[in-house]
């Protein structure tokens, strides 16, 4: 009898794909020639323009203010497959085959990372990547770099088109010790040219500016809290137990670099209140459909969407690459002090806002297609 080891070999996967029917695979490294994604399962007949994809990428593009990394990347997207041009010459139509998108890297400075080639940055993925694979790409972190998230934003721009009428928006609601005043919430202000923080509170801009300037000049970094709201999502998306909509939203958001916690609706606050306070009571609306009197559940009950706005929040830790010396070790086990040169975000949470929108849009688009396939209706 021949041993199984002759025939069986482990499947070596690094898990670069997410989604079930709307499946996104990303590829490329921070300091490689390009990054990109392949979106498989996008239905045929989705109409969009390259400008719409580019507009989303421009939101997370680096170098747009002194509060983000000064790496100068235009993030110009190219679509290589899966579309046909419409007669107007601008509109593209998906064919149902894989949509492949590419973004070239044009402003790498690998020499900035020479001093940490053998040293592990505290709080970074350096040590765990090398422990797992036996080597790591120290040039900007390779796949662990937030540079990879540009491809997710491109995929998310397409995902927005899958669910008719869906509107996904996000905002930075806290930075370190500073929080917005929710009474001043203004969605329209987020895209204002004088708002480098994606904050919905105009009064928070000078507060965040002074606070982050101090952090930045000290060579340090700080974390943030981002809130995502998806409106006009049909009721019924998701499934009980192992295919919950909130489960997949949380997984997508947790996959974003530096995210350390996610909550849906009132989240952890639910543990501090009574059942009477937490329950979203219901009445019949004038149009004959149910309406909720509150939305503590964040638009999801039992893993299935209620039709109310889907609300998620997540915490982003401070950027690990900082100029302040921190204690660590090198590959040979020597104790060293590490500081990281180069261009880094003093608050990486700022550029996480468009990434969050993309990841939530992808999760909902995936469940929309799964629901349609299972029930034959929306």
Give an overview in words.
The strands form six sheets. A five-stranded antiparallel β-sheet has the order 1-2-3-8-5, with helices on one face. β13 and β14 form a beta hairpin. The N terminus is likely disordered. It has seven helices and 19 strands. Helices cover about 20% and strands about 25% of the residues. It has about 375 residues and is α+β, with helices and mostly antiparallel strands. The N and C termini lie far apart (about 55 Å). The chain is globular and about 70 Å long.
Brief write-up:
This protein is of the alpha+beta class. Helices cover 22% and strands 23% of the residues.
Global morphology: globular
End-to-end C-alpha gap: 54 Å
Backbone CA Rg: 22 Å
H/E element sequence = EEEEHEEEEHHEEHEHEHEEEEEEEH
Major sheet: order of its strands? 1-2-3-8-5
Annotation, overall tally of beta strands? 19
The description of the largest β-sheet is: 5 strands, antiparallel
Query: What is the overall number of helices?
Result: 7
Point out poorly predicted stretches. Answer: 1-9
- In helices, the fraction of residues equals 10-25%
Mean pLDDT: 90
Q: By helix and strand content, what is the structural category? A: alpha+beta
Strand-residue proportion: 15-25%
């Amino acid at each position: 009898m021949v041993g199984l080891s002759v025939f069986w070999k482990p499947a070596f996967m690094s898990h670069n794909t997410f989604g079930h029917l709307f499946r996104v695979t990303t590829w490329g490294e921070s300091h490689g020639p390009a990054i990109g994604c392949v979106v498989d399962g996008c239905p045929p007949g989705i109409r969009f323009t390259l400008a719409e994809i580019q507009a989303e990428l421009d939101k997370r593009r680096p170098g747009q203010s002194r509060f983000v990394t000064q790496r100068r990347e235009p993030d110009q997207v190219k679509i290589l497959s899966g579309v046909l041009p419409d007669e107007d010459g601008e509109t593209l139509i998906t064919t149902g085959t894989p949509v492949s998108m590419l973004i070239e890297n044009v402003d790498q400075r690998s020499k900035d990372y020479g001093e940490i080639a053998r040293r592990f940055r505290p709080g970074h993925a350096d040590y765990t990547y090398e422990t797992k694979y036996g080597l790591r790409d120290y040039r900007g972190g390779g796949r662990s770099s937030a540079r990879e998230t540009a491809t997710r934003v491109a995929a998310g721009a397409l995902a927005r088109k899958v669910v008719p009428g869906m509107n996904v928006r996000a905002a930075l609601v806290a930075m370190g010790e500073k929080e917005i005043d929710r009474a001043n919430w203004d969605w329209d202000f987020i895209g204002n040219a004088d708002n480098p923080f994606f904050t919905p509170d105009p009064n928070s801009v000078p507060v965040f500016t002074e606070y982050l300037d101090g952090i930045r000049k000290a060579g340090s970094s700080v974390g943030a809290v981002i809130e995502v709201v998806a409106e006009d999502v049909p009721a019924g998306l998701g499934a009980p137990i192992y295919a919950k909509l909130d489960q997949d939203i949380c997984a997508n958001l947790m996959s974003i670099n530096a995210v350390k916690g996610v909550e849906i609706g009132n989240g952890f606050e639910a543990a501090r209140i009574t059942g009477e306070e937490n329950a979203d009571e219901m009445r019949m609306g004038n149009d004959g459909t149910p309406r909720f009197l509150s939305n503590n559940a964040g638009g999801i009950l039992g893993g299935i969407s209620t039709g109310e706005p889907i609300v998620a929040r997540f915490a982003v830790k401070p950027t690990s690459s900082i100029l302040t010396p921190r204690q660590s070790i090198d590959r040979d086990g020597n104790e060293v002090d590490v500081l990281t040169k180069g261009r880094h975000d003093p608050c990486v949470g700022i550029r996480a806002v468009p990434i969050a929108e993309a990841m939530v849009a992808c999760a909902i688009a995936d469940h929309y297609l799964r629901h349609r396939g299972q029930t034959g209706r929306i």
